[in-house]
Design brief:
- It comes from Roseibium polysiphoniae.
- This is AlpA family transcriptional regulator.
- Strand 2 (41-42) and strand 3 form a beta hairpin.
- By secondary structure, the chain is mainly alpha-helical.
- The chain has a three-stranded antiparallel sheet with strand order 1-3-2.
- It has helices at residues 18-24, 29-35, 52-65, 70-77; strands spanning 15-16, 41-42, 48-51.
- It is flat.
């Protein structure tokens, strides 16, 4: 019987450190710092964490900005 190997990565928590948030987005930390407009959530003890839901919205907005409708494309071409 044929077999297949399944390699999954599971994100077990919602709030991520800066390093984890950068890796979640597929970016190096320095690149994440320069590109991401997502603000961290500051907890009462001063710890800052990035919300996966906010990161997902930012990533989706990046994909949407690449898809221009006909009018936007004509406007961009001048």
């Amino acid at each position: 019987m044929p077999s297949a190997k399944l390699n999954l990565t599971v994100q077990p928590y919602r709030m991520l450190s800066k390093v984890d948030a950068a890796h979640y987005c597929g970016l190096a930390v320095k690149k994440f710092e320069s590109l991401s407009p997502v603000a961290p959530v500051a907890f009462a003890d001063g710890v800052k964490r990035w919300d996966v839901h906010d990161l997902d919205r930012w990533i989706e907005s990046q994909k949407a900005s690449d898809q221009l409708d006909d009018d936007a494309l004509v406007a961009r071409l001048g």
